[in-house]
Structures
1.
Amino acid sequence: MMLLDAKNGNVIDWPMSTRRNSRPRRCPRCRIHQMYCFCAHIKPTTVQSTLSLIVHVRELKLTSNTATFLKEMMPATTHFDVRGRMNEPLQIEPILERPGTPFFLYPDENAIELNEEFKRKHPGPYHLLVPDGNWHQARKVHQREPLLSSIPTVKIPAGITAEYQLRRAPQPHYVSTYEAVAHALGVLEGEHVRDELMAFFRIFVKSVMHSRNKFHDELDLEGEE
Ligand SMILES: [Zn+2]
């Protein structure tokens, strides 16, 4: 069977059997087609900060979800807290018992910039709470949970632009969850942490782009707003 590329009308030579089997041939860990698996590049790093990723249940399925790879890169100190599950509300108290002074990474109008001055005022160790999901959901998480809204918000230094965008963002300077955490830890922990995290991120994005170009009938864009 022949397929046409909707963008340019070119014929894509792609046997039917390959298409039918493409889902089972995804790597279970990085969730990309095995041809583009980048698991070999996951080299965990050690950080002092605790990371709590507050992830919407719908986000867990998306290959464009970058938070998953923060857990892969910093397995010892990263926690996943899933919200939006039916009859299973997110429990905030256990999250706040984790070590480190809590800060909520979200660039609202009150957010304090992470920089050297911040570190002087607030010596670590830190506990970064990071909402994941679309931007609208992320804001609601902080506003709606009384226990969370009392935690000060912080933002990454000005002038950082997203290197790659796998999903739509309302502003070009809005970066993915992964990049935001990498730059935040670059300030709090040191540039080497940011560099290690970003080196992997570039491989991740490149692999996903290659995969999407080839398997563009499998774009998983649901859940984006
Ligand atoms: Zn893989």
2.
Amino acid sequence: MALSAGEIKLVTDSWTAVYANKKANGVALFVRLFSENPGFQSQFRYLDGVSGLAAIEKTPALGDHAVKVMDTINSWIGSLGDSSAMVAKLTALGTSHIALKVTPANFDAMGPVLLWMLQEKAGGAFTPAAKDAWAKGWDLMKSHIVKALQG
Ligand code: HEM
């Protein structure tokens, strides 16, 4: 179900707080993804031969990738009020991840990690109402990604 104008504002305001520091927060997002899901590391070719979370965190390619991911999410947030534009972007992401062998389970794991980043890094903007709006927003985004991922 689409987000209300109030929910879009809650998502946008808390996102703006984390996007202001996109590289560091994007790296923190991935380090958390790997610490919670150690098996995922092997899906990322630029982490071949990199061992341990401290080394992962310092890998330059992870910083570059993290910025791309944060920019992509930022573009989705900017389209929350324009459903057809947002669905087109989410579908493109899902389709691009088929060849990367990413699974729906990978995207299921991303939700709690995204919420963790917001909780840790968005300061006061991540209110209980913002958390509820994000949970609803991520479910909506994920549903379109997974639909495209499954062809
Ligand atoms: C918020 C969700 C996600 C976003 C916004 C995102 C975004 C991106 C972007 C922008 C790229 C660069 C290539 C491209 O444009 O297709 C990429 C690559 C990639 N993504 Fe995602 N992604 C997300 C979730 C995931 C998940 C959950 C996984 C697996 C656990 C994953 C695995 C990969 C891999 C393996 C690559 C290739 C990295 C490389 O070797 O350079 N992504 N992603």
3.
Amino acid sequence: MIESNSVYAGLAGSSASLPKNPGSGPDGPIESAIEASMCAQPSLGESSLGWLESRGNWSRRNFIKGIIASGVAVSGVPYLASAASRPALQAGAVERLISLNVNGQTRRVDVLPNETLAMTLRYKLGLTGTKLGCDRAECGACTVLIDGVTHYSCSTLTQRVRGKEIQTVEGLESASGELHPVQQAFIDELGPQCGFCTPGQVMAAVGLLMENPDPTREEARQAMAGNICRCGNYDHYLNGIMRAAREV
Ligand code: FES
Ligand code: FES
């Protein structure tokens, strides 16, 4: 008849020395089974065990514990190897929680590695004055200043502007609430029609006047070539730039 605990019988090679209930021993079922197996092995008979037991502090219990410990060590090798390689992966990863200097303020924000500045400004920081038109560096609606230079924020990775000064249209107003001279000049010259392109036009004009405070009309036209106005109000915007240049 097959023993209900046949796995232990297999270990022992003989049922003669099987414990009645392997799970009830002081060292648990596995140790009890292995110990039973040791006793039954013909190659490790009483004379051999007696010789080993006579060697210093050796005991069957210590021997069995050594086997179990070596098994744990071997099975843990893959885990330890992966743990050793983990610091290298972390070193190559991009930190997501970063600080940005936007309009003179430090803003902490969670940024994905492939996130554009336009997305961060609009949807993480709530600065919706920066518009998204084409989202592929063609229309200029998303223009912002980075360290005083105009950039398309739809085509700038946010992770690349850490430590730089970012200025959006929301940051042009003075502390007392006055509009920037370019903003006021655009109003005076009736630049905005639908107004969608206006923030980008304003930022491009501000960038131009920072670099060239007294441009000719043709220089201004060239500088504004990257900003499309679907309403076609280019001359009004140019009038505004020339007026702002006189007043700044
Ligand atoms: S939205 Fe960036 S250039 Fe058009
Ligand atoms: S004012 Fe309408 S797109 Fe320029």
4.
Amino acid sequence: MSRVTHPPPIAARLQLFAGASAAISETFRISPMPAFYLPDHAATERVGAALASTLGGGMLVTLRGELAAGKTTLVRGMLRALGWIGSVKSPTYTLVEHYFISRLYFYHFDFYRFADSEEWETAGFADYFRDDAVCLVEWPEHVSSLLPEADVELVLAHRASHAGRDLSIHPATPAGERCRSAIAAVLET
Ligand SMILES: Nc1ncnc2c1ncn2[C@@H]1O[C@H](COP(=O)(O)OP(=O)(O)O)[C@@H](O)[C@H]1O
Ligand SMILES: [Mg+2]
């Protein structure tokens, strides 16, 4: 007679899974990173507006997420909140768009098409990261060895199960932590 091993019932399997993930979190001391849900593009723009209130010279904000995740929308919301009334174009082809608002330069990069690290030198991109400039960088993973450390990284994700976006916020400096608090404050109210 052959022995048939039945899988444990669903509740027991869920318990096993919960136990295993708790053990993994404990081992690696991972604190779960809360994601905020942004139901529509206006919510993404509101995040940009909240971010605007905390930006200062010398800061670097990176924006990660697949194509159409909402990165440029967030930057547009930020620039509009700062009073920019001109167009805010995606820098997909130009690599960088420049803005000058209230005596501060804003450089919005999109490194999606960046392929040649020599171009970093020839374009003089290192000179954009200055104390009188705020840099906002889409596709930072394409230039990760060239970029200074970001104050905060914003990650936007699109799930098939809903129309909106998930946002997670990863601060790395006190200035980045202030960005996280300002964004959380508008999203949690
Ligand atoms: N939270 C959201 N929910 C639904 N659509 C959104 C949201 N945020 C942005 N969008 C829409 O996603 C599309 C792509 O946005 P975009 O900012 O150009 O993406 P990316 O710069 O990441 O490629 C736009 O049509 C924008 O209106
Ligand atoms: Mg974009």
